[in-house]
UniProtKB/TrEMBL annotation:
InterPro entries: AraC-bd_2 (IPR035418), AraC_XylS_family_regulators (IPR050204), Homeodomain-like_sf (IPR009057), HTH-like (IPR037923), HTH_AraC (IPR018060), HTH_AraC-typ_CS (IPR018062), RmlC-like_jellyroll (IPR014710), Tscrpt_reg_AraC-type_HTH (IPR020449). It comes from the Bacteria. This is Helix-turn-helix transcriptional regulator. SMART domains: HTH_ARAC. Residues 172-270 form the HTH araC/xylS-type domain. One of its GO terms (molecular function) is DNA-binding transcription factor activity. Pfam families: AraC_binding_2, HTH_18.
Length: 271
């Protein structure tokens, strides 16, 4: 059984129930193999590994590898591009897979399974809704997880303490843009450019400054405006949803219910 979802910068895959593949390489991708159940029999550059649950292995770009798992085993594979604005180089410019960190890494299997499910659901919803902000936030979270796994979160590219409020004028410019254009399609790349930061560091600094992610911030702006329109106008719920940039009425309902605890219809009836 296989599950797979991919973007321009990451790929998530899960396999189980007696899966095997043939020797191959990924020229531009760094792969992290994470056995979450049973044993994964892995061969990397002619060296064999018996990877047990919770024992991961990194494949730098160009590494020849293949693996097999039995019927009672399962493995999660996370692939990220090494270079480019959405790759590992956006976390640390001089990053090179396999250099400065161990290829063997311990991890929490239950936590990886939970993360994988969250990432998969968010990507599927973001891709189906054609919402680049939602997709790019998952890409960021995957990069952050891989960075933490290999110990990069303690590197000099990270702030030791969160800033006291939003003092950076470039970050304020990005936030002002979000307030002006929250009813339009917004991408992390646009916002990062306004803030003069890489995509990865923009999401991190935004979260530190505001306590939330860019995607959740935009959703709140949209839901706040929807609440005002539900109170003050007779515009249909479907039209409000479309006017505020939601890809569908169902996406609007999910966001509104999550943030207010009630549906748009129920909220309007209370006014």
């Amino acid at each position: 059984m296989e599950m797979k979802v991919e973007t321009d910068w990451i790929e998530l895959w899960q396999g189980s129930e007696a899966f095997s593949n043939v020797p191959h390489t990924h020229d531009e991708w760094m792969q992290v193999t994470l056995p979450v159940k049973g044993v994964c029999h892995f061969t990397q550059e002619a060296r064999s590994f018996g990877l047990e649950q919770g024992s991961g292995l990194i494949q730098p770009p160009g590494t020849n590898h293949h693996f097999r798992i039995g019927e009672s085993a399962a493995v999660v594979i996370v692939k990220v591009r090494e270079r480019g604005r959405g790759g590992m180089a956006s976390v640390r410019r001089d990053f090179e897979a396999g250099a400065g960190h161990e290829l063997r890494q311990r991890f929490d299997a239950d936590a990886v399974v939970a993360r994988f499910r969250t990432w998969m659901l968010a990507l599927i919803q973001g891709q189906s809704a054609a919402d680049p902000l939602a997709v790019q936030e998952v890409e960021h979270d995957v990069l952050a997880y891989v960075s933490g796994l290999i110990g990069m979160e303690h590197g000099e590219t990270y702030r030791s303490e969160p800033p006291k409020g939003v003092a950076d004028p470039h970050l304020l410019r990005a936030i002002a843009y979000m307030h002006d254009c929250y009813d339009e399609t917004i991408s992390v790349d646009e916002l990062a450019a306004l803030a003069l930061q890489s995509r990865f560091h923009f999401i991190r600094s935004f979260r530190e400054a505001t306590g939330t992610t860019p995607y959740q911030y935009v959703l709140k702006l949209r839901v706040d405006e929807a609440m005002a329109r539900l109170r003050r106008t007779e515009t249909t719920i479907g039209q409000i949803s479309a006017d505020l940039g939601f890809a569908s009425t169902s996406q609007f309902h999910r966001a509104f219910l999550k943030m207010t605890g009630m549906t748009p219809k129920a909220y309007r009836l209370l006014q």
